[in-house]
Structure formats: structure tokens, C-alpha cells
Amino acid sequence: MSKKFSGAITALVTPFQADGKVDVESLKNLVRFQIKGHISGIVPCGTTGEAATLDQDEYRLVVETVVKEAKGRVPIIAGAGSNDTHKAIHYSQIAKKSGADALLHVTPYYNKPTPAGLLAHFKAIAKEVDLPIILYNVPGRTGSNVSAATTIKISKEVPSVVGVKEASGNITQMMEIVKGVSSSFSVLSGDDAFTLPLMAVGGVGIISVASNEVPKAMSDLTAACLNGDFAKARKLHYEWLDLMNINFIESNPIPVKTALALMGKIKEVFRLPLVGMEEKNKESLKAVLKSHQLI
Fold first, then answer.
1. Average per-residue pLDDT in the chain?
2. Which residue in 59, 96, 136, 282 is the catalytic one?
3. How would residue 27 be classed by pLDDT, with cut points 50, 70 and 90?
4. CATH 2.30.110.10: does it fit domain 7-232?
5. Which of 61, 100, 116, 252 is 20 to 30 A from 16 in CA distance terms?
6. Which helix (H) or strand (E) holds 158?
């Protein structure tokens, strides 16, 4: 359980065929593209992977495909979160059987558990599945924030929880976490634009949306930070800030999947309730992609 996750880790999209089925060949190609870009890990079946719309067989297919294509070259951290602890355990077991190296667990949404409930949730998962877990705090989607004190408590009482993906947007909270956890605990940004600021205060990387499009750039940015070269990191941060921001002009993963389709890597297919971009936003996205010679 001592493995430290760091660098640029991609929250991978799930490509679909025109008929809505998982596009396995495009998925394999995306994994190869990520590894070629020196990415430090891949997260299949997270928010960016539209996991909420995958059935159990599709979930297994996506995780197995990514694991097999990665061939052990980078760690695979499977999203397995649910607001039903029993379901979270079940999907974690599927992920382990499919060869995942670790799990990403979003904190339970809608139910809004108390800090004691969150602790019990992660203890229950850890008891049943022997894999490292990264806690995912994203108040904008779950409806509740996990305080720094709660994250620190979980890190100390549940040894399997080895890191946090912090998407609270609160740098003060992130600093409190960095200060309060052990040196082996990975504090990762959940927002691309917060990668540099978080790493400047002790974070160790990003679980990234933008790395779907530009894995090497995000890998270079995090590597610069980890090497203490913040002048280079700042240059890369501002070079790619417009892409980081445009990816959230509409709900993730709509813009990034549209971008990958424009780049010729996947088909522009979403699952309801997600739909294609508004035309004016799509034009803005195209302009950013063209400015970076991505299309």
C-alpha cells in the first residue's frame, strides 16, 4: 500500500461507436496515445469516462481493455465510486479482478454522509478490497465538501486510502491537507488549472482532463513541478491554460470528447443525459484547438 501516485494521471474518456456501444479500438488507441505522451497513470471509468452510464459488463470491458493495452507500463486506477457503499465494494471487486492497480472513489453523492459516514464508507471498501484507494472530493458534483480534517482523519485511519483527488477549488483546504497527511500520501489536483498552484505548495500531481488531448504537455508540467523547475512549469501552465479552461465551458466530458473527435481520435458520441456542445461553445473550442495546432 506504499505506492505513491504522482505526476500527470489521465481521467480517460470512454469512446462510443455510433450505435452507442463502447468503441474498444478507439479506447485502445487512446491508451497508446497516453503512454506515448509519458503519462504517469490512467483512470478509466471516472466522471470523464461517463461511468454513470456504463452497465456492469461495459464497466468490466473498459477496465479490462485499458489494463491489457497498458501492459503494466503505467498504473491503472479504476473509478469505482458510488453513493451506495455495497455497490462501491462490488465495482471495486470487479476492478481488481480486471487487473486494476488502484481505485478512485468519489465521495458518496446525494446522500450527503456525515464525516463519520464517510469514514465508515472508506473503511468498508478497504476491508473488502485489497487495493490502494484515492479519495475523490468534488463538491460541485457530490453536493458536499469533504473538509481537510475529514480527509486527514481518513488517511490516518484507513491505510488503504493513499491519496486524494482534490477538486474543491479551495487552495487553503488543499494546503491544510498537504500539511496534515503523511509524506507517503498523494495530494493530487482534480482541476487542471490548479495543478501548478497545488504542486507549488506540496501537491504531487493531477488527475487530468486536459491530458486526454495533450498528455505530453501535462506530463511535462507536472515533471517540472516535481523537479522544482517552477519557471518552466509556469510557462507551460500559461501556455495551456486556455485549453484547461475551455474543457469546462460545458459539463465535463462534453468539451474534451468533442475536442478528441475534432482531433480524429474518437467519434463525437455521448450518452444521455449528455448531448453535443452548443454551436457557439464548439466554435470557441475549435479556436483554442487551432491555436495549439491540435486540429
1. 97
2. 136
3. very high
4. no
5. 100
6. none
pLDDT at 60 > cutoff 90:
yes
pTM for the structure as a whole: 0.96
Task: Kindly write down the DSSP assignment for every residue of 251-262, as one continuous string.
Answer: STTHHHHHHHHH
Three cell numbers at 111? 446522500
| Residue 1 in this model has a pLDDT that exceeds 80 | no
Q: Is 91 a catalytic residue?
A: no
In this structure, the number of other CB atoms found within 10 A of the CB of residue 166 comes to 28
160: CB partners within 8 A, 6+ apart: 1, 122, 125, 126, 130, 131, 132, 133
CA distance 162 to 183: 10
The Cα 80–Cα 132 span in angstroms is: 12
Angstrom distance (rounded) from CA 164 to CA 170: 14
At residue 4 the predicted structure's pLDDT band, cuts being 50, 70 and 90, is confident
What are the helix (H) ranges across 135-278? 139-142, 148-157, 171-180, 195-200, 215-226, 230-246, 254-262
Contact, 104 vs 79, CB < 8 A?
Answer: yes
Per-residue pLDDT, averaged over 192-214, amounts to: 98
The CA angle 214-218-222, to the nearest 5 degrees, is 170
Do 249 and 286 meet the contact criterion of CB atoms below 8 Å apart?
no
154 forms beta bridges with: none
Could you say which of 165, 216, 232, 265 is catalytic? 165
